[in-house]
């Protein structure tokens, strides 16, 4: 049996992604399942790793991709809770851009009844990230005023829906007014990213920062209320229109924010960060997050566009040039 995959052999632009066919090894560890993939989720981190800036990425050549939806093809000897033919979603910790994947049973969930296969492929990373940021780290409550930096993407749209459900006063940033409706549709107020520094309100309780730069850090801290929290989610400031900008990279590294214990104390704020992969590696957290995913069945992942797998380079171009809205998926069938 053969499988088709998208492979990163050398770091570079979107065209450096290569499609390859290879022999499929169907031998499974006792706790693994084999999945016939229908959809693979595309994440901003895939661009970061394609450019060679992702420290957790495996050595080249490797298959990127953190999440899939599809049907079970085979189960390992110790897997009792999944059947062949069942529709599932799964987290893959690399390897997800492939027509067939192996996944540990703890990273697989039956597709909840109210979701389509497309929606299931769009959920694992966005849900896990949004849930951990807002509920486990942010401990958000109804009275909170919240700002989401990456509001129009996969993670952002799930965050906005969760915050709308809680009843928070929510704001979202975008680089373009064209995407404002993707923020207002969830009852949030849109603000242009480059105008936020002049935004008059200084009483945000929780801000998600996906840029990672000193400039945005200063802007965001300035807008926190007493006891507010800023959470680092990403480093998009290192990427300029899909290119590893050496100037921006150097600037980001040189100006990476540093903090003093005295400053935290005197200014009454909290700075936090998250690497979802570390939670994902812990079966206890995988179980908690999947349980919560089923409980949050009101969420509707915003799917921007679905690309046939052989148009993966175009999908990356659209994402890195900020043309995408919501979640992008690859289709294998
Ligand atoms: N730490 C973790 O474990 C973790 C987990 C998941 C995601 N993340 C991070 O969270 C952020 C959102 O992830 P996502 O998958 O939801 O992203 P996404 O769907 O790709 O959305 C990214 C959005 O961010 C905006 N953006 C800001 N700076 C950009 C830049 N330099 N180049 C291109 N777009 C830029 C764009 O929105 P506008 O056009 O509206 O400005 C874009 O649509 C990313 O930074 C990602 O790396 C981190």
CATH architecture of the largest domain: Alpha-Beta Complex
CATH class of the largest domain: Alpha Beta
Overall helicity = 25-40%
* CATH fold category name of the largest domain: Quinone Oxidoreductase, Chain A, domain 1
Largest sheet: 7 strands, mixed
Cofactors, ions, other ligands: NADP nicotinamide-adenine-dinucleotide phosphate
Q: Which class best fits the helix and strand makeup?
A: alpha/beta
CATH superfamily of the largest domain: Medium-chain alcohol dehydrogenases, catalytic domain
Q: How many strand segments?
A: 17
Distance between the termini: 16 Å
* Global geometry: globular
Along the chain, the helix and strand elements come as EEEHEEEEHHEHEHEEHEEEHHEHHEHE
- The Rg value, from CA coordinates, equals 20 Å
The stretches of 5 or more residues where confidence is low (pLDDT under 50) are: none
How many domains, as an integer? Answer: 2
Given the structure, what is the number of helices? Answer: 11
Mean pLDDT: 93
- Relative strand content: 25-35%
